[in-house]
Amino acid sequence: MTHSPTTPGVVAGRLPPPVLADNFADLHPPLDAHEAAVAADRCYFCYDAPCMEACPTTIDIPLFIRQIATGTPEAAARTILDMNILGGMCARVCPTETLCEEACVRMDAEGDPVQIGRLQRFATDTLMEKGPQPYERAAPTGKTVAVVGAGPAGLACAHRLAMHGHDVKLYDARPKPGGLNEYGIASYKTVEDFAAREVEWLMGIGGIELTTGAALGNTLSLDGLVKDHDAVFLGIGLAGVNDLGIDGAGLEGVRDAVDFIADLRQSDDLSKLPVGRRVVVIGGGMTAIDAAVQAKLLGAEEVTLVYRRGREAMPASEYEQNLAAAKGVRIIDHAAPKRIVGAAQVEAVEFDYTDDDAKPTGDGFTLAADQVLKAIGQKLGDAASLKTEGGKIAITETGRTSVAGVWAGGDCATGGEDLTVTAVAHGRDAAEDIHASLMGS
Amino acid sequence: MADLTTDFIGIKSPNPFWLASAPPTDKEYNVRRAFEAGWGGVVWKTLGEAGPPIVNVSGPRYGAIWGADRRLLGLNNIELITDRSLEINLEEIKRVKQDYPDRAIVVSLMVPVEEDAWARILDAVSTTGADGVELNFGCPHGMAERGMGSAVGQVPDYVEQIAGWVKKHSDMPCIVKLTPNIADIRMPAEAAKRGGADAVSLINTITSITSVNLDEMCPEPMIDGMGTHGGYCGPAVKPIAMNMVAQIARSPKTAGLPISGIGGITTWRDAAEFMALGAGNVQVCTAAMTYGFHIVQEMISGLSQWMDEKGYVSTADFIGKATPKVTDWQHLNLDYVTKAEIDLDLCIKCGRCYAACEDTSHQAIEMGPGRVFTVKDDECVACNLCVNVCPVEDCITMRVLEPGEVDLRTGMTIPAKDDKRTWLQHPNNPAGDPLACISRGQ
Ligand SMILES: Cc1cc2nc3c(=O)[nH]c(=O)nc-3n(C[C@H](O)[C@H](O)[C@H](O)COP(=O)(O)OP(=O)(O)OC[C@H]3O[C@@H](n4cnc5c(N)ncnc54)[C@H](O)[C@@H]3O)c2cc1C
Ligand SMILES: Cc1cc2nc3c(=O)[nH]c(=O)nc-3n(C[C@H](O)[C@H](O)[C@H](O)COP(=O)(O)O)c2cc1C
Ligand code: SF4
Ligand code: SF4
Ligand code: SF4
Q1: CB distance B396 to B343 below 8 Å
Q2: Could you give the residue range(s) of every CATH 3.20.20.70 domain in chain B?
Q3: I need a surface site. Which of A430, B75, B85, B225 has the fewest CB within 10 A?
Q4: Coiled-coil intervals in this record (chain B) (predicted)?
């Protein structure tokens, strides 16, 4: 049975497999050696480089680009990985247009930054293709640290701890490690199972024992972890999702965008993945954009993303918004859902127009829909007894929580934007602080 | 519209752009293409004696260095003089000259240091209708090992003697091509003049090793696991060549001796610079080998536009115009003071000026909050390094201090324009004038 973009309802196989394969190919294909040389040539080797300061993991960007330019991409990769062990993933998923590349002085010079992200990928890909992760473990310290959550924060923390000679027990609630690298990031940013390959490569350092299907608040308790280990790091991300709090949110066809994306990421045959004919995505962040774009790429006829404030207030960058528009997603701003209508299955969503404070103006419209994806933000799951701040675990600069012996980082904790690279920085810094406190210095 | 025609030692050409003796001029096919493309003249690839032709290596003969985006900056070669037979070359020269009577064809020659050998080859060349000869005393590799090329150019007595033979056995205009591989370029130039040469051309290539293969541990280009030095040319050699041209142009002993400028000329501007320093025309090799013959159109249009803008009607109007401004260090005005100045609107905040001045110069640039870079006038010695490393053209400029202003670094009051001190008057010079600093407030 074949379907097309106009088949009513939520069905699979709207596009032929070759088209799907093409749609979900690498968004930014890797640079080849010549392209990398040309791109690297453009770097000015700035003093106290602004790009470096804009990188949450403070990679020495001018140095690694110079190492590429002089024919040693492996050395460049070491420069990157020294600061950011997930440099391969970050090269693919960082919104560079709001981080390093936005700060690049070439933006000022000609509005066209050095392609830092793609150069970073060139270097890390070169090294990763050549062999195992290059770090060695220090002599065993006899200490054991529990790391909960195998997302970017937990992985970065675990690797750094293992490097310093500690034994790491890594726990994750999900069946696979990687966190949102594995379950959340848009497919076209991390093709060919890169997330899983990177985790395996990273674990190659040894000394990290992974247990999946182990959830804090379920099989694990914070007290128990603290008792059984010399230190605990929590990198549990944001496991909960915000509610829409409107009528009809329980109708068939209404679901969380993160679940839709997780299904998509875990699918080994995209032609078997159902998607609506008319998809409405509610929200304005990266999750909303990714869900909308991927719904479109799966073959939905009409995808509309509705955000309750102005474009400039959207958490998704201008680049992401343009990407969505280019893929055929319609973006409506200044509108909030009032009611989802339908018998058992969703049929339409009624919206109010809103002002800049997201307050209804009294005017509105209705969008026909057979699938509604909610992307209005994730929230912290169970934070046990830890002190929170603005809905996140409160931490110090080095990741210490309100409970002695417990550190936290990544999306679940305060400080910085919810990004892969921020999570890596948190995990790394917490590991250094744990190491320092365990070794009594 | 500017008139680009040039008369170089009686040899006329529609423009001053000649191709230097090298692969671009090695045979009829190339030279015809060059003339079609618009080149004003050629110096035919160096001819040797009649007899068994020269043998070149059949492995790579070039090495190179590159700048950003693999822009070729310097080329190195181990090619010898023409490896085609003398007779064929002569026939080709004759045919081409007949078809292009308005273009200059000069024939480059290199034969052993024997009067008979020179007499024979001049005889042969005289049948071609060529406009002149150029004596290749410059080739620094291969031929030099056989006592020719730069082995001759490095011995002024040989230069004089052979130039004399050439003038004795031929009435063709004679250019002596000089090697830069010598301590003082004025010596062979003077010798050429004494020998009766009509002009000198310079530079030929500079001895060089451009790269070492670190896997094979061997200089490149590699010929079956071995390497030898080659001759270096291209944009990288231009500064060396221009200095040598200027030295000959301003030396009293060679002043007025016509010069054909060669070495790294790539654009109309390079050509204009050589000519301003005293070259009557220019010769180009590497630029043509890098980009093909069509570049001459940019040279022609660029030089014409610039001449029009400056009001120069003919090339003679600006040839040698910069020569009198070339002087010795001891004649430079030590009371002339400038200060670097950063245009904050153009600045892209890369910090290269800061790194350069702070790490390696005079700690005269301040990096303020928000990466605002400013020059400290009380520290700046005006060395120009920041200007040279700044990636934005004209972002850092040098402001000239006016008479009466105080140099905050030294406390000196800038004297009136005509009241200048050179090293010769400077009080720090044991042979200088101790009173010359009083008027400066020091
Ligand atoms: C759809 C989507 C797209 C995104 N795209 C980008 C992007 O393009 N670029 C970018 O930089 N960032 C992006 N992000 C954000 C980025 O993925 C996160 O900031 C990053 O993954 C945070 O890392 P983390 O380790 O803190 O948390 P997570 O990656 O969420 O990992 C947390 C881990 O903890 C586990 N866990 C949760 N609760 C428990 C528990 N109770 N017990 C045990 N284990 C638990 C989870 O299973 C998970 O493996 C995106 C996010 C989403 C949702
Ligand atoms: C491959 C090659 C071969 C050359 N052969 C000769 C030659 O036979 N005779 C000669 O006088 N100069 C020869 N030269 C030197 C050039 O004529 C010229 O003097 C030199 O390359 C500098 O000019 P450029 O920087 O424009 O290349 C040769 C140069 C090159 C690159
Ligand atoms: S800001 Fe741009 S040019 Fe400067 S070091 Fe960083 S990447 Fe290079
Ligand atoms: S001119 Fe020299 S001393 Fe002055 S600011 Fe520039 S680099 Fe420093
Ligand atoms: S080198 Fe030029 S562009 Fe860079 S900071 Fe200095 S003045 Fe600005």
Answers
A1: yes
A2: 6-325
A3: B225
A4: none
pLDDT band, very low/low/confident/very high, at B140 (cuts 50, 70, 90): confident
Cβ contact (<8 Å) for B68 and A44?
no
Q: Looking at beta carbons, which residues of chain B come within 8 Å of A47? A: 350-352, 354-355, 367
CA distance B313 to B308: 7
**Residue B364 and residue B268: Cα distance in Å, rounded?**
37
d(CA A434, CA A161): 8
Model confidence at A415, in pLDDT bands (50, 70, 90)?
very high
Q: Is the pLDDT of residue B233 over 70?
A: yes
Encoded tokens for B303: 């030089």
Residue B192 CA to residue B169 CA, distance in Å, equals 16
Is B383 among the catalytic positions? no
Q: How far apart are CA A29 and CA A38, in angstroms?
A: 16
**Tens of pLDDT along B417-431?**
888 999 999 989 988
Evaluate whether A234 touches A158 at the Cβ level (below 8 Å): no
- Identify the CA nearest to A420 among candidates A90, A148, A53: A90
SS3 state of residue A407? strand
- Indicate the class that CATH gives domain B329-439: alpha beta
Question: How far is the C-alpha of A369 from the C-alpha of A278, rounded, in Å?
Answer: 5
Q: Distance (Å, rounded) from C-alpha A237 to C-alpha A410?
A: 6
Report, as an integer, the average pLDDT of B33-53: 96
Ligand number nearest to the C-alpha of B265 = 2
Tell me the C-alpha distance between B219 and B209, whole Å.
7
- Share of residues in chain B with pLDDT > 90 (%): 91
The CA distances from residue A172 to A89, A147, A218, A260, in Å, are 19, 9, 11, 20
Per DSSP, what are the bridge partners of residue B406? B413
Question: The CATH number of A33-130 is which of 3.40.50.1000, 3.60.60.10, 1.10.1060.10, 3.30.450.90?
Answer: 1.10.1060.10
- CA A218 from centre of chain: 25
Q: Which CATH number fits domain A241-378: 3.60.21.10, 3.50.50.60, 3.40.50.10190, 3.40.800.10?
A: 3.50.50.60
Please report which residue ranges of B208-294 form alpha helices under DSSP H.
238-250, 268-276, 286-291
CATH 3.50.50.60 range(s) for chain A read 144-239+380-438, 241-378
Q: How far is B346 from chain A (nearest CA, A)?
A: 8
- Strand, coil or helix: what is A88? helix
CB–CB of A47 and B69 under 8 A?
A: no
CATH of domain A144-239+380-438: 3.50.50.60
How many whole angstroms from its chain centre is CA B3? 23
A46 vs B: CB within 8 A: yes
What are the Cα distances from residue A320, in Å, to A97, A179, A186, A308, A324?
10, 22, 12, 17, 6
Q: What CATH number does the domain located at B6-325 have?
A: 3.20.20.70
CA distance B194 to B200: 12
Q: Do B69 and A41 touch (CB under 8 A)?
A: yes
Q: Are strands B259-262 and B281-284 parallel, antiparallel or unpaired?
A: parallel
The span from the CA of A2 to the CA of B232, in Å, is: 69
Angle, in degrees to the nearest 10, between helices B186-195 and B238-250: 50
- Torsion, CA B150, CA B153, CA B157, CA B160, rounded to 10: 140
Tokens of A27: 């968004």
Question: Nearest CA to A128 among A62, A193, A184, A55?
Answer: A193
